[in-house]
UniProtKB/TrEMBL annotation:
<dbReference type="GO" id="GO:0016740">
    <property type="term" value="F:transferase activity"/>
</dbReference>
<dbReference type="InterPro" id="IPR009078">
    <property type="entry name" value="Ferritin-like_SF"/>
</dbReference>
<dbReference type="InterPro" id="IPR036282">
    <property type="entry name" value="Glutathione-S-Trfase_C_sf"/>
</dbReference>
<dbReference type="InterPro" id="IPR036249">
    <property type="entry name" value="Thioredoxin-like_sf"/>
</dbReference>
<feature type="domain" description="GST N-terminal">
    <location>
        <begin position="12"/>
        <end position="78"/>
    </location>
</feature>
<protein>
    <submittedName>
        <fullName>Glutathione S-transferase</fullName>
    </submittedName>
</protein>
<keyword id="KW-0808">Transferase</keyword>
<dbReference type="InterPro" id="IPR004045">
    <property type="entry name" value="Glutathione_S-Trfase_N"/>
</dbReference>
<dbReference type="Pfam" id="PF13409">
    <property type="entry name" value="GST_N_2"/>
</dbReference>
């Protein structure tokens, strides 16, 4: 039973990141269909997902079309009550739903001044007062949630939940634009940057298409503040330690070099997403450590 999910560019589509995390972080099967933003690709794909107009849009195995991340989260939680999308404790669950609802509808100044861009990080973006107010509201919500639910994990309401998935794109904005937040808020941001599902999404986003000019900014740059990837690189050749791709099981055609060893993949995207962050991919790491 596999769902379909229409997404935009992984590096830039914050709503798509949120929707995809609702599957990957909770181990739910999904097939993605990517459309490049600012082209007619999204409208073309969504012709088969009436009446949806935006990414992400989900289609259930039975054929129901569900746009909007709030609706996707609730439908998945109903269908998969043991997956953990919402906390099991009633008070924590209510808190998580409050968080997701405000994130879904709010923080317009932050969204506008700091569009999501996972390919760069800046030293400063000179945030205006309205953005600083949004950041203070985020800190208030995050602190309130952790206190209200007595969370002892890195997450807002105990174990990672849909509420955290909803805030992931905001966490990336803080990382990308080096926005001023408290130490506690920054720790929450860093937890997102290290989350396995997010690392996989960002690795794919680094290589799934050219840069989008709309998101280009002239601020001074710094290194990405998340976990540093292992120093892999794409390489030529036909010989590798493995004969089949660790993801698809198909014969290898594209090579990666890491620590003087060569590994093969079935296509350029499989290789390049691994080059972007080898440790994000358990099947590759199992091969690398074997």
């Amino acid at each position: 039973m596999t769902y379909d999910l229409v997404i935009g560019d992984r590096a830039y589509s914050s709503w798509s990141l949120r929707g995809w995390l609702l599957f990957d972080a909770f181990d739910l099967p999904v097939k993605t269909h990517r459309a490049r933003l600012y082209t007619d690709e999204l409208a073309t794909i969504l012709k088969d997902y009436f009446p949806a107009r935006t990414a992400p849009t989900m289609r259930t195995p039975e054929g129901s079309v569900v746009p909007e991340t709030i609706a996707i989260a609730e439908e998945l939680a109903t269908r998969h009550p043991d997956a953990g999308l919402w906390p099991t404790d009633p008070h924590a669950r209510a808190t998580a739903r409050v968080l997701a609802a405000e994130m879904h509808a709010g923080f317009t100044a932050l969204r506008s001044h700091c569009p999501m861009n996972l390919r760069v990080s800046y030293t400063d973006c000179q945030p205006p007062e309205d953005v600083l107010k949004d950041l203070k509201r985020l800190e208030t919500l995050w602190s309130w949630a952790r206190q209200a639910t007595n969370s002892t994990t890195p997450w807002l309401c105990g174990p990672y939940s849909a509420a955290d998935a909803f805030f992931a794109p905001v966490a990336t904005r803080i990382a990308t634009y080096n926005l001023p937040v408290s130490a506690d808020a920054l720790a929450y941001v860093n937890a997102h940057l290290a989350h396995p599902s997010f690392r996989r999404w960002r690795a794919m986003g680094m290589v799934d298409g050219p840069d989008q000019d709309f998101y280009r900014r002239d601020y001074p740059r710094r290194a990405w503040p998340g976990p540093a990837p292992l120093p892999a690189r794409a390489t030529e050749g036909t010989k590798a330690e493995n004969t089949v791709c660790p993801y698809s099981g198909e014969p290898v055609t594209h090579m990666l070099e890491l620590d003087g060893r060569t590994f093969g993949f079935c296509n350029a995207f499989c290789r390049d997403k691994t080059v972007a962050d080898p440790e994000a991919w358990p099947k590759f790491i199992a091969l690398y450590q074997s």
